[in-house]
Write a structure and sequence with these properties.
9 strands, about 325 residues, 14 helices, 2 domains, single chain, Dehydroquinate synthase-like, alpha domain, five-stranded parallel β-sheet
Length: about 325
């Protein structure tokens, strides 16, 4: 569906949080455009936040041709995207991601949503932004933990896209990456790869599912820890390690590749042993069973292989393989 690109200022709503409201105000300039300010953090990624956006749009008397502009990290992007997808059955959407994670992952591909009933992104829609504007200068303001969260998604994409990207990432020191031009190159590579995959498989019926590498484990860990307690990147990095362990157990992931992935993840400051104790909890198991990728009663995992990764469905009677890895660990 083609959408007009000329947006009238008075039919626009900026959505930001406490961390990005000044950026939103600087982008909108001197125009008298309303700004909806949300609470920051994963713990506030809920229906109440969506309702706040919709209420602000209604109060501003915005029409169906309104444009919602989300300025912030992945949480703001997901909430703004979902609100845009349902406001008057769909209005226009522009995103200005201000975190590394949002730039390389959350703002690309059109996935929107919010956390519900303790499950991450249980409710959502596919609704791509017509424009994604990346104010890369905002990366210099991010705390180390937030940068690491985005680095986990960069690592994930590099694993999937092939040896050239992954080798480049493996050969780059963390300090050099964050202080030099290499980061912009890696952002471009990540955006290009994800954009290509999602354009070919928008509703995730095939290859796009590979982008969930580390997420089946990671989302469950986030839920078990309490949404917002761990960063998404910390959970995904841990999840990639568990995916490698599962791949080794199933004879899919070569040991040399698993070791290389683990080395790269460790080199960027992630704790690869990050809390397996949480994986033994009922909360973790419940979250795993509620995973959106589950089909026909089978758990779906993305497992690294020789050059990229593959989709693997685990039968209910074989889920003990996964549980053994989580409770006993898999050393490599």
């Amino acid at each position: 569906m083609n959408r007009q690109s000329n947006c009238k200022p008075l039919n626009t709503l900026f959505i930001a949080d406490e961390n990005t409201v000044k950026i939103a105000e600087s982008i909108r300039g001197k125009e008298n455009i309303p700004v909806c300010i949300l609470k920051s953090g994963e713990e506030n990624k809920n229906w109440q936040a969506v309702e706040t956006i919709l209420s602000a749009a209604k109060s501003a008397e915005l029409g169906r041709d309104a444009v919602f502009i989300g300025v912030g990290g992945g949480v703001i992007g997901d909430l703004t995207g979902f609100a845009a997808s349902v406001y008057m059955r769909g209005c226009r959407l522009v995103l200005a991601p201000t975190t590394l994670l949002a730039m390389v992952d959350a703002s690309i591909g059109g996935k929107t949503g919010f956390d519900l009933f303790g499950v991450k992104n249980l409710a959502g829609s596919f609704y791509p932004a017509e424009i994604v504007y990346m104010p890369v200068h905002s990366l210099s303001t991010l705390p180390d933990r937030e940068l690491k969260s985005g680095l986990a998604e960069l690592i994930k994409t590099a694993i999937l896209s092939g040896d050239d990207f992954f080798d480049m990432l493996a050969e780059t020191k963390k300090e050099k990456l964050l202080n030099g031009g290499e980061l912009l190159t890696l952002i471009e590579k990540s955006v290009f790869y994800k954009g290509t995959v999602t354009s070919e498989d928008f509703r995730e019926s095939g290859k796009r599912a590979l982008l969930n590498l580390g997420h089946t484990f990671g989302h469950a860990l986030e839920a078990a820890a309490g949404l917002g307690s761990l960063s998404h990147g910390e959970a995904v990095a841990w999840g990639i390690i568990q995916s490698c362990a599962l791949g080794l157990s199933l004879g899919i992931t070569p040991l040399k590749r698993a070791e290389k992935i683990k080395t790269v993840i460790s080199s960027f400051g992630f704790d690869c042993s990050c809390p397996n104790r949480l994986a033994a909890t009922d909360a973790f198991k419940t979250a795993m069973k509620s995973d959106k990728k589950k089909k026909h009663g089978k758990m779906t995992f993305i497992i690294p292989d020789e050059n990229s990764a593959r989709i693997v469905d685990i039968e209910p009677n074989k889920i003990n393989i996964v549980e053994k890895i989580l409770t006993e660990g898999y050393i490599f």
